[in-house]
From TrEMBL:
Compartments in which it is found: Nucleus
Protein name: Origin recognition complex subunit 4
Function: Component of the origin recognition complex (ORC) that binds origins of replication.
Alphabetical list of CDD domains matching this protein: AAA (cd00009)
Annotated source species: Habropoda laboriosa
Entry keyword DNA-binding: yes
Length: 446
């Protein structure tokens, strides 16, 4: 039986939106200064034959790869770049030793036939030969090569850091026009470099921090950008010309009139109070664009012939996968005894308004509760101390400032790092928690 027009449009919409969300364009919206810095570095390598090296450092999801891709896309519009520049992408998870890295670099530089069966005495000789092969004409000009090293910190684990040493050495000595860009989430990456490697690195570090979009941008403005992205990613082309330019998918031709109606509905979602509060809460938990796109992809996947519209409830349901508090999840994995101690800590903190406590105080509070509830089986003090130590090792507790480490364990003071809301949410979600313990969490007992 033939699929009717509406059903067909919904299936095409789902296909189009998933591609749009999961295959992002290389437009880069933030970190303007940092992007310009990288752009200028690569331009100088391409246009003036200047060699450079730099590290792009930031947590996962901060936009390092998107920034690099957007710069390379902009440079690709330059004829000199397009015709002469070579880009070599190496990844620390894939190229686990220097031999693999050099072999793939040879392939990406299209020099496999030139190398052939040649045998080189050292890694340096091999790499130098490759760069010499790129020289043209009077041998004074060589094709610029841009090395992009993703998961840069993993290359620091290679034997003697030979690859890094030679790349930085070539960049520093200007033997050939190369630019080495390392991407990593390790803030201490410089400390991982051997002394001889460090001495050849430019020490140019460019940091990307989520939310650090520009000095003038306010949090409200940053969230407004997220709302705009939400509308953009869920919108369809509603004009035939835009359709041809933007889509780039022959198998996803969306009817312009259908697209216009769809986009009007998406606008109502952007102004929906429940929707705004949901997106704001998710943004406060995780501001990375990658997680946000994954969230939208899950929502869009719910579209079908039987479910032809994205309801607010679809977003609410999908958000549960992305807005869970890691600490709450960890609490749900504790033993019942450990959960009791957590509740005792919550009460102790609530009653004494955030003052630090020691094991002795928590032990007394737990024993008092256990004695008042015959269904709760008491355990020996060393077992309770072990449970307390486990909670401390999970970093739910922080030693109070001025604590003397020579004091016996049970009298050392700690600050509780969980909120009452986190504890209560874990109690609510904890499967099989005895009713008495759940009720104890709800009532403050002196």
């Amino acid at each position: 039986m033939a699929i009717d027009f509406q059903d067909n449009m919904i299936l095409l919409t789902r296909k189009y939106l998933k591609r749009k969300i999961m295959c992002p364009e290389t437009k880069f919206r933030h970190h303007v200064k940092e992007r310009l810095h990288i752009l200028e570095l690569l331009k100088r390598t391409v246009e003036m034959g200047e060699s450079n090296s730099a590290l792009l450092i930031g947590p996962r999801g901060s936009g390092k790869t998107t920034l690099i891709n957007s710069v390379l896309k902009e440079l690709s519009s330059m004829k000199n770049f397009k015709d002469n520049t070579l880009i070599v992408n190496l990844h620390g998870l894939v190229h686990t030793d220097d031999r693999l890295a050099l072999k793939d670099a040879t392939r990406q530089m299209q020099l496999e036939n030139v190398v052939g069966d040649k045998v080189f005495g050292t890694f340096a000789e091999n790499l130098t030969f490759l760069l010499e092969c790129l020289k043209s004409g009077d041998k004074k000009h060589s094709k610029p090569v841009i090395f992009i090293l993703d998961e840069f910190d993993l290359f620091c684990e290679h034997h003697n850091q030979t690859l890094l040493y030679n790349l930085f050495d070539i960049a520093q000595s200007a033997q050939a026009p190369i630019c080495v860009i390392g991407m990593t989430c390790r803030l201490d990456v410089i400390e991982l470099l051997e002394k001889r490697v460090k001495s050849r690195f430019s020490h140019r570090q460019i940091f990307l921090f989520p939310g650090d979009t520009s000095s003038s941008e306010q949090p409200t403005s940053a969230f407004n950008d997220r709302l705009e992205l939400f509308q953009h990613l869920l919108s369809l082309p509603d004009d035939e010309n835009v359709n041809r330019i933007e889509q780039q998918y022959d198998d996803c031709t969306i009817d312009p009139q259908f697209g216009s109606v769809w986009n009007d509905y998406i606008k109502t979602l952007v102004s929906n109070a429940t929707m705004i509060n949901l997106l704001k809460r998710m943004y406060q938990i995780d501001i990375s664009e990658r997680s946000f796109r994954n969230f939208l992809a899950v929502v869009v996947s719910t579209l079908s012939e039987k479910h032809q519209r994205l309801e607010v409830s679809d977003f609410v349901e999908a958000s549960k996968m992305f807005s869970q508090d890691d600490k709450v999840i960890m609490l749900e994995g504790l033993s019942v005894l450990e959960m009791c101690l957590i509740i005792a800590m919550k009460h102790e903190t609530d009653i004494y308004e955030g003052e630090p406590f020691n094991f002795d105080a928590i032990y007394d509070r737990y024993i008092k509760f256990a004695n008042q509830n015959s269904s709760i089986q008491t355990v020996q003090k060393p077992v309770i101390m072990k449970a307390f130590e486990h909670i401390k090792n999970l970093e739910f507790l922080l030693p109070a400032s001025g604590t003397n480490s020579t004091v016996e364990k049970e009298y050392q003071y700690y600050k509780f790092l969980l909120t009452s809301q986190q504890v209560m949410e874990a109690v609510k979600n904890y499967s099989g928690l005895p009713t008495e313990i759940s009720q104890w969490a709800l009532t403050n007992m002196e």
